[in-house]
């Protein structure tokens, strides 16, 4: 389907970017004639506008391959990557569709059950457009669905194929969006990495040919995140230039393909379900819809896209029950006890944690039957009576008596070979009956395409949450899919299993969160292996990474912040040396980095001294004091850790009324000074009190170089000072770090307001 603005650019300042459709309308409005100096084309009744270099384009001569399209078929002249591909009963894949009709509706168009989509408090907050296109030979129908949010620079797109033919049709490619952009210089920023190194920022210039980022793992993955950012006209900039963000509301295998035409230089971007291993069978009358893509535009660079996405996630993605609520400050038992968790260790940890003001203890892996190591127990979600002889109800009462709430870890999608569930139902996992079964982390993946499996897991989780006062659940998924085959489905449907699997996960997630609406769920997948818009639709936060090292987290959380707000990022203070990197960091730096997420602890509080618990308690109080800024403020990224030896960022309340600024040094070069830290997002006319909330305690003797840690407070600039917003943004603050991993926190709030000059 042609974009109405397809065409060229003429001379003399005349807006000549008409498509042939626009030219035809002009012809009906007046007499199209040739004349004037240089033989220019003019329309009667309008002033002449000079010479035009482009003749009206002849589609038969030019062909589809050079056009800007909203949706593209395969095999009829567009040689770029198509938007969809179907296979008819006779084996043909040719299916051009043309515009038939459109419909504008208030609100959004309903999606199938359990499908993540943007939430609307009021239908009047959005308008949707449905464009219907038909293959006039086979009668196949395609619906292109656009939804525009009125208060955000955001729209969504998805596609639906309806089989109105008389035969079976197989869909083996369906993009959620096709975005064709006219010739320019384009850069694509993707979020790539690995376990414990998720969502590292990778930017590259798009040149002739195809660039792809994808997951084929049955999950959105640690390796590549289903969000990309296009920078238009030059390299990505945090503060300037046009930028377009695309985020897929999906947690399964996905792909984003960017293709620059070597003929025209135009860019095409496709995003949706990964076509590898995918084929959906449509009986006559059936329909299949793609996941939704969120598209965000900014004229103020990468930062503008991020702030739009953050507001979108907070207002229109996460469950309404948890909007605007600070996440409880939790202590997770994993690094405290590993598999040796028990009733007594949990209660003792809770007592110690309570002295630091921690609000909840979460018992992690190891609490259920036969779970002494990673080789057994998954699938049997009942309490180990040897470790917890008094049951879950008694445990929750004893924990509540310390003043803390109780949370629990589960991994519902997995099953151990050594488990009662697997022994009773060995066919309930994904597998090809005639072949071996590939384990990952000593476990198999349950077949969530089967109703009996979903019902069993829902029943076990429901019984678990009903057996004690549980306020929080961490839902984990520690491996990706292999042998994506289900013995419950015929051979005709095996190409659907990957998608049906993730839709089954969504169904159970929706059922359990609906049945227990006051239980806070955090999603997890071996850390950040499924941190995506699809999972945030069901749980308001996700574990960002299994790597809790503060300096590693700087880059992980920085990359994640490209689209996800801080309130969704699970972030904890862990022990030192860190259990993943063996690196040490101060409690101050570990706390400030974790505070820019949900904030909690991943350590054993029992051996800590009173002074150490008191230090933790001070950071807990500080977190509560500043949580409204982190969770509701606009994020401005200042120093980029991917391009600098330091990282700095700030959160600003709407209107610049209040802000907090965090800066952390990754590696200090001796003798080299840092540039001034210039703020953003402040009101230039306001005079701010600038208060350093967490002073350091290390000084160096300038004569000998000896280190002094006598406990005296050491400030960057003094305990408090006043500066205007314009000074803070234009001149900035001098910052000096003393050691690798040093950090600083500033709190800004109005002192007085001056008249604008």
Automatic annotation (TrEMBL):
The keyword Cell wall biogenesis/degradation does not apply. It catalyses: Hydrolysis of terminal, non-reducing alpha-D-galactose residues in alpha-D-galactosides, including galactose oligosaccharides, galactomannans and galactolipids. Residues 647-748 form the Glycosyl hydrolase family 36 C-terminal domain. Its EC number is 3.2.1.22. Residues 1-20 are annotated as: Disordered. Gene3D superfamilies: Aldolase class I, alpha-galactosidase from lactobacil brevis, Golgi alpha-mannosidase II. It is an enzyme of class 3 (hydrolase). GO terms for molecular function: alpha-galactosidase activity. GO terms for biological process: carbohydrate catabolic process. Substrate binds at residues 195, 364-365, 441, 474-478, 524, 546. The active site is at 476 (nucleophile), 546 (proton donor). Pfam families: Glyco_hydro_36C, Glyco_hydro_36N, Melibiase. Residues 63-283 form the Glycosyl hydrolase family 36 N-terminal domain. Keywords: Glycosidase, Hydrolase. This is alpha-galactosidase.
